[in-house]
Amino acid sequence: MLAIRGGELTKKKSFPKWPISGEEEKRFALEVIESGNWWRMSGDKVKRFEKEFAEFLGVKNCLAVANGTQAIELALAGLGLQKDDEVIVSAFTFISTFNAPIYANVKPIPVDVDEETFCMIPETFERAITPNTKAVIPVHMAGHMCDMKKISEIARKHGLKVIEDAAHAHGAKYQGKPVGYYSDAATFSFQNGKIMTCGEGGAVVTNNDELYERLFLLHGVGRPENDKGYHHVVLGNNSRMSEIQAALLLGQLQRVKEQNQTRIKNAKILDDLLSKINGIKPQGERCDVTVNTHYMYMFYYDKQEFHNCSREKFVEMLNAEGIPAFISYPLLDETEFFINKDFRGYIEGDYSKEQLECPNAQKIAENVVWLPHYTLLGDSEDMAEIAEAIKKIQIEI
Ligand SMILES: *Cc1c(COP(=O)(O)O)cnc(C)c1O
User: Fold this and answer.
1) Is residue 191 flagged as an active site residue?
2) Measured in angstroms, how far is the CA atom of residue 138 from the centroid of ligand 1?
3) Which of 40, 194, 214, 219 is catalytic?
4) Closest CA to 291 of 160, 166, 174
5) What is the number of the ligand 1 atom nearest to the C-alpha of 69?
6) 137-171: b or e for each residue (b if 16 or more CB lie within 10 Å)?
7) Atom nearest to 72 CA in ligand 1
8) pLDDT value at position 267?
């Protein structure tokens, strides 16, 4: 009997809990607390994290910031975008990829994504470019990298800046190249659910030294690093990361590489198991992806193969069986603030119907279910139980 009707749960042992921490996080955090240096201007943890995270990724500069949304806002400002500029953004993404440009007075224009990989389609991006377009933000959906070589080539041809939204992609690679290699800047999030976390946090990485200097000013109310007076040389907000956040991240950084490998291994097992179930189709992977970080395990759910049971009800039943699952992100134009044109003057906010037409993203938004990444941190038995739960629902519904 289905667990939702009082039957036994399919999931016998529990998934690893998230976040995962240990002695490292405790030791670094205690060092910060006892040192009395709790902000980056007097401590050394943020600096050390920036250096180690840049090394881990394989990029030159990293600026740690308060969160991933502000990281995108800063990257846009640092690259010189301003009022009346437009930025092309992956249509299927978390809302921050749209909100951050709006706060930077830049109008986000969604472009459709590939229906298999859920990533930006280079050709569709190129067709969407207008004289107002100044930048592009591809999103590495669930850790699957976009085709950055093609996207950056198109961007260069049209004189556009490239910002990778790598909030899901800590350590991702494609054609052997890391996040940050083909772009002007890439942004990360360390929010609680992300694959490295300090509760809230973010980073901008770049191989461009001048951009890094400018970002540093912008993220600290416009003050140079060693300023002892009140010298505000550019207009800047405060997006600084605290030493406690960096202490936790120094610990997380020691785990992420191995966790990425575990998720890759388990995602393959789960792909094989779920592909055999009628009505379930996992997110695809381009063959040139080297490291897919699998921030989410996403799959299409076809309700016709489940007696027309709605996706919401399916997710509820899966949760009852002991499998954490969620429905995917909505489209920008389905959010309440967008429908109400609640832009508060940041952008003019007129969109044509054609500008918002993204059929693949719509299909994904309406049909996809995802499992959080920690479900992929278990073992092959955990993967088997996920498949069992779905099969049980299909049979007994
Ligand atoms: C989480 C996330 C962000 C924003 O990160 P916060 O740290 O929560 O501000 C941006 N883009 C994507 C795709 C995300 O998933």
Assistant:
1) yes
2) 13
3) 194
4) 174
5) 9
6) bbbbbbbbbbbbebbbebbeeeebbbbbbbbbbbb
7) 10
8) 98
Is 231 one of the catalytic residues?
no
- Structure confidence by residue, pLDDT tens digits, 142-159: 999 999 999 999 999 999
Overall average pLDDT of the 98-117 stretch:
98
Q: Both tokens of residue 25?
A: 């996080």
Question: How many angstroms separate the alpha carbon of residue 123 from the centre of ligand 1?
Answer: 25
Among the listed residues 165, 263, 295, 306, the single catalytic one is 165
Catalytic-role residue among 70, 191, 252, 259: 191
Q: Per-residue confidence at 364, pLDDT binned at 50, 70, 90? A: very high
> How many A from CA of 66 to the centre of ligand 1?
12
Please indicate whether residue 230 is annotated as part of the active site: yes
Amino acid code (one letter) for 391: K
Q: pLDDT (tens digit, 9 = 90+) per residue, 156-205? A: 999 999 999 999 999 999 999 999 999 999 999 999 999 999 999 999 99
Q: Which residues line ligand 1 (CB under 6 A)?
A: 67-69, 93-94, 96-97, 139, 165, 167-168, 189, 191, 202
Distance, CA of 18 to CA of 20 (rounded, Å): 5
5 catalytic per annotation: no
Going along the chain, which residue ranges are E strands? 61-65, 86-90, 107-111, 133-137, 161-165, 173-174, 177-178, 185-189, 202-206, 280-282, 289-291, 296-301, 326-327, 368-372
> 3-class SS at 352?
coil
Global pTM reads 0.98
Ligand 1 centroid to Cα of residue 178, in Å, is 19
Closest to 242 in 3D by CA, of 54, 372, 50, 66 = 66
Q: Are strands 202-206 and 289-291 parallel, antiparallel or unpaired?
A: unpaired
pLDDT at 121: 98
Instruction: State mean pLDDT over 87-115.
Output: 98
Output the DSSP codes for 98-121.
HHHHHHTT-EEEEE-B-TTT-SB-
Mean pLDDT of 131-147: 98
